[in-house]
Model the fold of this input.
Amino acid sequence: MISDEALMMKVRSGDTGKLSLLFERYNIPIYNFFLKFIGDREISQDLTQNVFFRILKYNHSFKEGASFKTWIYQIARNVRIDHYKKYKIYNSSLNTDNINEINFSENHDPIEKSEEILLIQKALSKMPEDKKEIIVLSQFQELRYKEIAEILNITENTARVKVHRAIKELSVLYKMLV
Amino acid sequence: MKYILKINSLFTLIMLFAITAFSQEISKKSVIVPLSKPGEAGKLYVEIHNGSIKVSGYEGKEVIVVSKSKSLESHHNKDKNSEDNPPEGMRVVGNNAYALDIIENENKIKVDTDSHYSSIDLEIQVPHNFALYLENHRDGDIEVDNIKGVEINAESHQGSILLTNVTSPIVADTHHGDIIVTFSDVSSENPSAFNSYNGNIDLTFPKKGNATVKTKSERGNIYTDMAVSVNDSEPKVITKSKNGTNYYSVEKWNYGKINSGGPEFSAATSKGNVYIRVQK
Amino acid sequence: MEKKDLKPYLMEFLREELDEETKIAIQSQLKVDPALQEELDELKEVFGELNKIPSHKPDIALKENFQKMMEENTIQSPGLFSNIQHWINNFQITISFKQMAYAVVLLLVGFFFGYNQNKGTVNAGERNQQLSMEIEELRKNMMLTLLEQPSASERIKAVNISYDLEEADPKVIEALFFTLNNDKNSNVRLAALEALTRYSFNKKIRNGLTESLRHQDKPLIQIALIDVLTEMHDKSLKKEFKDLLQQDELDADVKEKINESLEILM
Done:
């Protein structure tokens, strides 16, 4: 399998068709990255599309030797921040009444409707934006500390401590709800 | 309450503090940050929401960060949810605490806080050759003195920006405050820019400095010293044309030269005045 | 004895991502330290809960839109100058303006010699024209590279270089818009706005500026944009401005400015 980076370097040098392969590899995780924050499927799809659009448009800013994975998450982050700016919903995040409705409206799997999940999602939605982000990156996207550190432009150790603190806070919030 | 912390590490040094600051309680911390490359140039990045930032250059080889904080009860949204009354035996780990993160990496120092509710006043001492990137999202002034030969960026919203004994290039803006700068040297070839909406911009140049100044005030006045030669010709009308249609707009900038002219210093304000002075 | 805090490593422990040494340290500490064990159990529980939150698949529309985007993007074969731009881009951020200027001079000298030797028959007029085109191209590339500099002052300088360009190159316009909408520094964004104002006779640029109003959150820039837009006397702006007035957190100064502008546009 050709590495993400090699594909991206081809895109950069004009072979833009190679972006399709990268799209196949990343569209689902990036879509879920947005969905965890925004909760709305359509907006999350638009933002995912926007990420690939930016990759195409600003392909020259991908630096040789950089990791594609962290780069795409950096772009996704910027897209998300721009989206928030646009709608002025900075730290208010989602209110908990919405999240139930949005995330569960299209679920047909009965397990997903169980009480507990509702609580953990509720707890997650009460987290401040920056801590929620770190949980989404480390838990749902299964990124390693080294990658999180690169995406957030902090050191690996800071990332480790921040994830630890965020998880700790989430578990306290969760217990308060149980 | 005062701690002095000194940690040495070859490459990276991370210090994390989480201080629980109850309402109105003031806590003060002092941290000495040793540098990976003592004596060499470095960069300082500071980003806070509320509070003042004061940075001074000094003859030292470390960076000293003193922070004072008190939480702002008025900003706290009390009826938001039940977090103010945790169940018995539980505690809230997020809301009332503020964290000040200081990271040193290869002489680059980043100081930031994730708190929106506390007001944090920072006083930081750095070696003279530290480039500064200072940002304050809401209230509080930014003050800098004795920094040489590096770039300074400062952004505030409510506060004023006061830079004394500094060198170009400088890029600064604030919405409500004044920008007051006294240069000790303006020989860098890079441009400087200053912007305020409601405040004054007051720049003082060294006697022998060469500079081109570009000024604009929509509702205020522009004042200059005798030593500034002002290009007081009629405002230029710029013609833009496309497909036979002409569009006109009037150049709003005033240009002036200090000594023989040089790198560009632009200063713009809407409601304040602009003052351009040359040291006597 | 000083011990490193093992708690932050527990997540990697659970995911089996740790190096052998830390792993063994945690395993042995767990046996004697009930608090750490408790922490681990707590983590397991939270992770277990988090894992139950499902991932979703995007619908087919996403892929269709992506393919449409790819089709619209005409593929350009990389020519000589895009190679030079690559070469310049690869220098990334360490290059200083002075070094850049030297590089430009050296390149120009190189071109000059090249033409003298290979194309001795080309007349002087053509040669000069070609040369000025190349200077223009290099200026453009210099500007695009400088815009990526970490220094705000360098980026303002980059924006100022655009004033020396005679033609409104799409790449330059795009870079100026990107700067206007994304640059961290307000002064750089304002400089980009001013540079773009020169092209405001162009409908596309006007639309871009109108669109930009929605991206800006700093009153200083919102006001400057409103000023520029008002000067264009485009009646369609009235709706745009009125929409902006509806925003809750709108700065008082911005509000005042919009009301003034609406009077002008009447």
